[in-house]
Amino acid sequence: MKPSAAGPFATWLFMGLGALSLGEARAQDAPAATPTADAGGIGFDADRLHRLDAAVEAALAQAKLPGAVVLVGRGDRIGYVQAFGRRAVQPAEQPMTRDTIFDMASLTKPVATATSVMILIDEGKIRLSDRLVKFLPEFDNHGKGQITIEHLLRHRAGLMPDNEIGDYKDGPEVAWKKLAALSLDFRPGERFVYSDVGFEILGRLVEKVSGQTLDQFARERIYQPAGMTDAHFRPTAGDASKWPNVDRIAPTEPAEPDQPVLRGAVHDPRSRALGGVAGHAGLFATADDLSALARTLLNKGVAPSGNRILSPLAVRMMLDTGDTPPGQRRGLGWDVETDFSSPRGELFGPSSFGHTGFTGTSIWIDPETRAYVIILTSRLHPDNKAGSTTPLRRMVATLAAAAVTDLPAPAPKPAPPVSAARRAPILSVKCGIDVLASRDFAPLRGRRVGLVTNHTGQAADGRSTIDVLFHAPEVKLVRLFSPEHGVRGALDVEKIANDVDEATKLPIVSLYEGKKRKPSTDDLADVDVLVYDIQDIGVRYYTYISTLGLVLEAAKSAGKKVVVLDRPNPIGGLGVGGPVRDDDQESFIAYHSIPIRHGMTVGELAKLYNAERKIEADLEVVPCEGWTRDATYDRTGLRWVNPSPNMRSLTEALLYPGVGWLEATNLATGRGTDTPFERVGAPWIKPAEWAKALNDASIPGTRFVPIEFVPSERQYKGERCGGVQILVVDWSTFDPIKLGLGLASTLRKGYKDQWKPDRLQPMLADHATYQAILDGKTAGRIEALWVQELADFAEIRDRYLIYPE
Predict the structure, then answer these.
(1) CA 69 – CA 80 distance, rounded (Å)
(2) Per-residue confidence at 2, pLDDT binned at 50, 70, 90?
């Protein structure tokens, strides 16, 4: 994970460590170590455990490591500890001893930083759900305001692994300003990306909340009470006489060519630049120190000394992987199941946890057997030419686990959870028109009414809203207004003419005729109230909500009241995603600055438009009854009516936020087939190859089947297209925005010359996203562009929401 220790500023740092030279260091005896127990007495097979001797010797020789300390314990006792090889080969050879102090590198993260954070949680000073900016407001930029403490502890904050080493060359104060200004690589919470930056920030958080430096807090609250006698940071400006003798420290490598090896100075260059104390690296400790911490965690927070470091529930929380997905399972600071989990070996169970360090350190703890394995090497010494320690870690853990002779009875497995789909109840939802009728049409009585509607405006009994209002007592319906696709929703053409309703003989004013998109003053001359009742599908470029905004504008200009009869958002009221429209991108398919998937009903949008655009029309929303934000249309109990000719099912509506914007390119998106938006293709696409690329992209909740199809309308009408059928195999993880980005990124990569995204900009309505797609950015990096703007939108959106979750 880490680069070489070398850096342009390393010379002055190293010169500042003169007080740590061997000749000047104060002699200090090593503390007494915990005695080893009879292996058989603590549930180990002694013969099997001693297989470690030859195996470790062979591994050290193969990897060309100078030496190692290996410690294996169980419960409160140590069953095996052995020092191998040499502590140092430069400037002089020294044998390895059990009390050798190692640069822990990234073991600093769980041992010092995460444990400190958990202590602060125990004390009620912070919460996992707290946002970072609550304590460090300088990080409130580029979307980082959405990062929580939990995101940081699980490496899911969307931060890069390491920032540029040059960011540290001008000293800690400037370095922290540059850290605070970093952009995100991914949306917070989206994925696991191991990040030193995140733990640097956590170290800073501990200092801000506790009022102490990280090394002081960890020493007073962890090392001393836990009996971790030799554990310490070595700040560059500190008093070396207070620390263990530098001669006991295993050196690493030179910070710069032609310099002495680092000894008593942290190897990590960023930690050195921050003064030797940082949340990601800087800790020095022995195998016995780590043994004390392992026993503390196994004993539910009580150290071998008898002092309580953490509460039992804090320990449980620390080791809980939460909702992290397979292959990315992390506790709070601890690794459980990721690509970094080699110290688990082949036998320790799924509840085991641990961590590694770049310098060659590792610990793995198994609560099921109460066993733990500590391996400390200085693999970078003397010249960073040794092999990997991964085989050694895996082999030692496997042999140690194989030596366990007794196993506690397994805990009973809980009953499998009931799926969310089975738990979710079917609701009994009343739409605005039925609520209005139940109130005897009070807002409309004695008024002349103009109705903006189409075929989706229906009451629960199947009557159209036109019929309901036409026959409503003391309501005079005088004019109809139709949106795109016409009053009956059957037209898929660019221009719709005015008409007359056959049943009522009322005039129908088309709001999709030529350039006309909203009622004129003359259209409203004999109207007192404009009523809007159209089923939307929850996507910005679906034009019914643009018509809504323009109707509000027209009503305000003419001094008329607007009554919006609300309907559920069919794709749910919780999901929000995609780019927020740029200010210069307003159009009929991007009326207001909202994201592609907005998670609002038409009633809520009407309130938002009216206030945020300062329309200030006389607006009344008649809400639905019985709808909750988590409910998609299949849970409403309402009959599905195709909102437009090619929106024929809820599945297609749920796919539309991801597939719809690709219609602006030279793709066929299933129009003219029996499954619009469920298939995508073009004559120049090789179906099997594209399906493989999409399946390899692991887009959540989806699978892709190679197909051929012939559209009967629009793009490639009558031509055979190769493409994919989109299958949603897990609705609980499916995200249509991720789908759209996956389709776009694989097309850009595999069909750069054939796929023409030139006209995407109006649909995306976001310059940065459009450019990122052209540049071939990954989906994760594109989503990171939206974090701040989505957070800003969420704050605005919350003001206008009507329905509970």
Answers:
(1) 11
(2) very low
Task: For residue 619, list its beta bridge partners.
Answer: 562
Mean per-residue pLDDT, 387-402: 94
**What is the amino acid identity at position 56?**
V
Mean pLDDT of 509-513: 94
Both tokens of 95, joined, read: 């044998």
Which tokens sit at 726? 């989109």
CB 309 within 8 A of CB 217: no
Q: What is the Cα–Cα distance from 60 to 523, expressed in whole angstroms?
A: 88
Q: What is the DSSP letter of 219?
A: I
Q: Whose CA is closest to 106, among 250, 267, 280, 223? A: 280
Burial class of residue 323 in the structure, from the number of CB atoms within 10 Å of its CB (0-12 exposed, 13-18 middle, 19+ buried): exposed
Q: List the structure tokens of 539.
A: 């996507």
Ranges of H-type helices in 253-333: 269-273, 287-298, 312-319
Q: Report d(CA 290, CA 286) in Å as an integer.
A: 7
Strands 507-510 and 475-482: parallel
Question: pLDDT tens-digit profile of 107-160?
Answer: 999 999 999 999 999 999 999 999 999 999 999 999 899 999 999 999 999 999
As a whole number, mean pLDDT of residues 427-452 equals: 97
Degrees (nearest 5) of the Cα angle 80, 85, 86? 120
Q: How far apart are CA 459 and CA 463, in angstroms?
A: 5
pLDDT of residue 424: 78
Residue of 99 and 17 predicted with greater confidence: 99
Residues 6+ apart with CB under 8 A from 15: none
Q: Checking phi first, is residue 306 left (phi over 0); if not, alpha (psi -120 to 50) or beta?
A: left
- Residue 161: is it exposed, middle or buried by C-beta count within 10 angstroms (0-12/13-18/19+)? middle
pLDDT digit string, tens, across residues 234-270: 999 888 888 999 999 999 999 998 899 999 999 999 9
Name the pLDDT band for 494 (thresholds 50, 70, 90).
confident
- Token pair of 771 as six digits: 């450019």
What letter does residue 656 receive in the DSSP assignment?
A: H
Closest CA to 523 of 454, 613, 451: 451
pLDDT tens by residue, 707-731 = 999 999 889 999 999 999 999 999 9
Separation CA 443–CA 271 (nearest Å): 67
* CA atoms within 13 A of residue 162's CA, in its CB half-sphere: 15
Question: Token digits for 602?
Answer: 């038409």
Of 366-380, 398-412, 607-621, 691-705, the least confident? 398-412
Asked if residues 317 and 121 have their Cβ atoms less than 8 Å apart, the reply is: yes
Q: Return the SS3 of 17.
A: coil
Rounded-to-integer distance, Cα 376 and Cα 60, Å: 12
Torsional class of 32: left (φ above 0), alpha (ψ -120 to 50), beta (otherwise): beta
Confidence at residue 489, expressed as pLDDT on a 0 to 100 scale: 65
Can you say whether the dihedral through the CA atoms of 745, 746, 751, 754 is positive or negative?
negative
pLDDT in the model for residue 488: 80
Q: How far apart are CA 149 and CA 116, in angstroms?
A: 13
> Which of 595, 596, 599, 579 lies closest to 785 in space, CA to CA?
579
At 188-232, the pLDDT tens digits run: 998 899 999 999 999 999 999 999 999 999 999 999 999 999 999
Tell me which H or E stretch contains 150: helix 149-153
DSSP sequence for 322-377: TTPPTT-EE-SS-EEESTT-GGGTTTS-TT-EEEEETTTEEEEEETTTTEEEEEEE
Sign of CA dihedral 35, 40, 43, 48: positive
Bridge partners (DSSP) listed for residue 355: 363
> In terms of residues, how long is the chain?
805
CA distance 314 to 646: 53
What is the Cα–Cα distance from 661 to 23, expressed in whole angstroms? 70
Confidence of residue 485 (pLDDT cuts 50, 70, 90): confident
Q: Which SS3 state, helix, strand or coil, does residue 652 take?
A: helix
Is the bond preceding residue 425 a cis peptide, omega within 30 degrees? no
